[in-house]
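Researcher: Going back to the complex we discussed earlier. I've cleaned up the inputs and rechecked each line, so this should be the final set. Can you rerun the prediction on the complete assembly and write out the structure?
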Amino acid sequence: MFRYQGAAQPVLKVDNWQINRGSHVFVEGASGSGKSTLLNLLTGTLQPQSGTISLLGTSFSSLSMRKKDQFRARNIGVVFQQFNLIHYLSVAQNIEAAAYFAGRQQYFSLNAVSTLLEKLQLPKALLHQKASALSVGQQQRVAIARALINQPQLMIVDEPTSALDANARDKFMQLLLATATDSTLIFVSHDTSLAEYFSHHYTMEALNSARRDVC
Ligand SMILES: Nc1ncnc2c1ncn2[C@@H]1O[C@H](COP(=O)(O)OP(=O)(O)OP(=O)(O)O)[C@@H](O)[C@H]1O
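Model: Rerun complete. Updated structure for the full complex:
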């Protein structure tokens, strides 16, 4: 259960939610239904007031902040709604930063990044381009590359398609699913048409008994 400070009611009350390893899961919910709150709990930015969150067999919500940061960097790849690339760094440096924070810089190589960029249909020439000089579509794909560089067991993707037209959105989804084949994937969006890409679908209403209580 999670309640924002000062709020009368919890925004999220999930009785029980389990996802099998390796599954690709779509969570749909209207604006304000608690999608970002759920993802912030899953990435450890927020802490539930009661209940526990276990990820990949680890009791994630009971880890110290430092251990949570380490666990997230090593095991979770996140693609944010706004991508969160560091604009003054190059594409390669943005991706290298993710390897560095995971303590995996010894595995980082420009070759590995080039291979990822190729899979994501981005030209190699972009490697040394500043993130600020990328188109929105290119930023999205670099954000996927950054999330995948540490070969995360869990990928969390927050509504990254809202600014795209239907064609670009389909292409993005195909690239994401083709490159994240080895990861468990949790994808949240208000766009129900994306559900067709996933084997498992949930609605925030079904997950969140706090909302059912209010309705
Ligand atoms: N920092 C906060 N303090 C208090 N209430 C908050 C805070 N952040 C979100 N809320 C409230 O929690 C509810 C869920 O918000 P959340 O951002 O998780 O929804 P969402 O489904 O991600 O919405 P959107 O699709 O518009 O991004 C909303 O009613 C919102 O007003």
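Model: Worth noting: The pocket of adenosine-5'-triphosphate is lined by residues 4, 7, 11, 29, 31-37, 190 (CB under 6 Å).
Researcher: Good, that matches what I expected from the previous run.
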